[in-house]
Amino acid sequence: MKWMTTLMMVAGLGCIIYSGSVYIQSGETVYELPVQSVGRDQGQVDLSPDMNPIKVIFHTRFQSRTKTEAARFYSYAYEMKNSLGQVVIASKKTMTTRRDKKNIPVNEFSKERNRTHTLGTLSIEEAGIYRWTLLLMNHQSNINEAYLEVRKNVTSELPITLWLGLLLFGVGIGLGFFVTRHK
Predict the structure, then answer these.
(1) What CA–CA distance (Å, rounded) separates 101 from 104?
(2) SS (H, E, C) the chain
(3) For residue 55, is pLDDT > 90?
(4) pLDDT tens-digit readout, 56-100
(5) Which of 39, 61, 136, 152 is the most buried (most CB within 10 A)?
(6) What per-residue confidence (pLDDT) applies to 45?
(7) Beta-bridge partner residues of 64
(8) What are the residues facing 83 on neighbouring strands?
(9) Which of 86, 32, 23, 40 lies closest to 56, judged by CA?
């Protein structure tokens, strides 16, 4: 019975990871737009309804410059407007981490990290030029690379395998508790 609970949990976890991968990597890259490591950057993209739904993703590659346990690496503010000047996507975030100072490995500070931020998903009604602005502020890191990715025809709904994976994982945990309690 123990092997069955382990198998259900592993299968559930596999489905969850697969679903996340499919969801994140769905669609096709239309634009990869390098942005300045620090400061304000802007540009424009030509979008049309045949690309719907469209997802904008922000990628960074950075290194920590601090040895403190609460690190504030960088922050960004992104905005995309249509041809009428209306905001269609807006996103802002601060990339932080909280670490236990006693357990920070020596190479932790020089290790390069990659982060991916989904800025938003949209469907547009008419083709046109969309203008974007990104303000990237460096706090306690060295940003080695930053770029925007625009993907077309992305999946906007979570795959059914995610729900199946959550169900299998949950049943595996429940069955594991049942087996250990009845021994």
Answers:
(1) 6
(2) CHHHHHHHHHHHHHHHHHHHHHHHCCCEEEEEEECCCCEEEEEEEEECHHHCCEEEEEEEEEEECCCCCEEEEEEEEEEEECCCCCEEEEEEEEEEEECCHHHCCHHHCCCEEEEEEEEEEECCCCCEEEEEEEEEEECCEEEEEEEEEEEECCCCCCCHHHHHHHHHHHHHHHHHHHHHHCC
(3) yes
(4) 999 999 988 777 767 788 999 999 999 999 999 999 999 887 766
(5) 136
(6) 96
(7) 141
(8) none
(9) 32
pLDDT band, residue 127 (cuts 50/70/90): very high
Average pLDDT over residues 109-133: 89
Q: Residue 32 carries which side chain, given as an amino acid letter? A: E
* CA–CA gap between residue 63 and residue 61 (Å, rounded): 7
Report which residue type is found at 38: V
Q: Which amino acid is at 161?
A: T
Q: Cα(119)–Cα(133) distance, rounded to whole angstroms?
A: 12
- Measured CA to CA in angstroms, residue 86 lies from 6, 8, 83, 132 at distances of 51, 48, 7, 11
